[in-house]
Amino acid sequence: MSARTLQDRLDALVGSLPGGPTGPRGAALRVEVPEAGFAHAAAAGIARADTGEAMTVGHRWHAASVGKMFTATLVLRAAEEGRFGPGGIDTPLGAIAAAPADLVRGIHPVGPAITLRQLLTHTSGLKDMQGDDASGTAADHRGAAPDSVQASYVRSLEHLAAGDPGGGDGACFHRWVPWDGTRPGDPEAGMLDRFLATGTASVPVGAPGERFHYSDTAYVLLGVLTEAVTGRRYHDLQRDAIVGPLGLADTYLAYADDPTPDARRHEADIWHEGLPLLSLGADVSFDWGGGGQVSTIADLCRFLRALLAGDLHHERATTASMAHFVTPAGLTEPFDGVGLGLLRWRAGRRTVVGHAGAWGVRCFHDPSSGAYVTGTVLQRDPCDWLSDAFDAVDDELG
After folding, report:
1. What do you get for the CA distance between the two ends of the chain, in Å?
2. Helix (H, G, I), strand (E, B) or coil at 217
3. Residue range 369-391: mean pLDDT, rounded
4. Sign of torsion, CA 132 107 88 63?
5. Dihedral of CA 94/100/101/105: which sign?
6. Is residue 173 exposed (0-12), middle (13-18) or buried (19+ Cβ within 10 Å)?
């Protein structure tokens, strides 16, 4: 058992990941075990359908919900600075003077009573605008609800795949902002505007604190609230508090902090049902505070290490609170606990800490072995490779 054997196993694992019945894919993986002085990265497959370029360990890609850790970090920093008042993250939204009043009142029948902690732990009662609508949740419909963002987006993609890019409602080309308070009632104005205008907000999954229901809506709202109380844009806060101090040269908030005007052309594709979204020119601006970051395997590994080490907050107690996991009603596997922007997650024979993202993204730490694993397969996938990577570390370095 050795580091060399571990590298070989990880290379073989990554080589087995790309591909599928509907077209080529790319994959990238990084494993670090700081206490053993081990770090290794590997990539395989195709990064872009339009150019055919090979996937590399340095490719940038959309991190999806892994970005919720960034949002939570910024919220907690603002709370440390007293921006939300003496109650910190236990402050109800109705007591945040800078919060958009119409949004707070409309987000839930008792929106002003929701706390920041409930938003952070997905226990606010809010539906998820990505997969739910006024008629029910994605679970109720056994797939994206008909008036959800996902359903609308997929219908638009189907027209695109059939050679009719202008067909449907054009949702896959829509440029979203998180919230536009100047256009009340307009479902096209912003993500949260749509949530209110479609009636989804008025039919929540429960009362605040009642149960766990994963919600991108909550994290987009958290981003809006953090901007409101700081008077600064989310991506500027991210750059000053996280990206700059950690030297994350390949991390930015898509559509807000792009390094070049044509940034999408240099990012690895996101694949949906055989369609390479970025190569086709589709827009994925709907994530924002719910996970709009673009990053690399190296940058995300550095971020998670710094976050768990307490390097991104003013007080060590803040990091400890972030990693205080609860198990609210409604929590099911692979979730094993939910913290403040962090998840405790079942990965095979172990429980790991970090976050997962919809586009086959994983960013986790195993406290028992000390290993960090970050990676992507650029498509929706159960990501069984996560436990395989941690198993390889245990077998070869344990």
Report:
1. 9
2. helix
3. 96
4. positive
5. negative
6. middle
